[in-house]
From TrEMBL:
Residue ranges occupied by any M23ase beta-sheet core domain in the UniProt entry: 94-191
Organism annotation: Hymenobacter psychrophilus
Gene3D superfamilies the UniProt entry points to: Glucose Permease (Domain IIA)
PANTHER family per the UniProt record, alphabetical: MUREIN HYDROLASE ACTIVATOR ENVC (PTHR21666:SF270), PEPTIDASE-RELATED (PTHR21666)
Name of the protein described by the UniProt record: Peptidase family M23
Record-level Gene Ontology MF annotations: metalloendopeptidase activity
Amino acid sequence: MLSDLLRRHQADFGPVLPVDLNSPEVARLDFTAANPLLTAANLHDTATFDQLVARLLADKNALIGVGGYLEDRVIYRRSPGLFDADPTAPARSLHLGVDVWLRAGTPVLAPLPATVHSLADNEGHGNYGPTVILEHELEGTVFYTLYGHLTRRETALLRPGLAIAQGDTFAEVGPAPENGDWPPHLHFQVIADLQGRTGDFPGVALVAEHATWAALCPNPNLILQSRHLNTD
């Protein structure tokens, strides 16, 4: 399994962001229905959502928020039609990546040698915005990392097939509204098989398909290695 491969190489990974995700200034943020602050908040309004993130961080004396892997979230209700295209079916709410909530303009780094697989500007309220997918290889196994909610300026400089060295800056965390109209954060996801997709991949899935998606998208904290998150 890809998760086993990543565990064997944890000492080899570099940072995805130029910040210490083990710092006491980092805190895990909860966007599930268990968080009472989400109940009355108008998350459709990005400015209000941004204020909520700031409050969640302030309550924990933190500057950076992390979390989200396999979290059953309520925040996707802010984007009708994107995560619940069929009103008769369950809405997608299971988050498949780790979000790092921090300031726009923060550089994004390659955690290991990579090739740009594909990129796209996934526009629309609540979507990824500018997105980059990198391709990696370890022990003969090819896998991918996805970076969402980036800046248009930096991603416009990339092209498929471009080699990126470990530690190189290749993108930046984007501001609203170009980042899909979210409070600034990086969506970081690991993918075993892109299933033929380019420039985009589901970052939110049906809760009922938890096991399938967990196998396809192992825990990004195996690479991030933040003590504030688990690696299961």
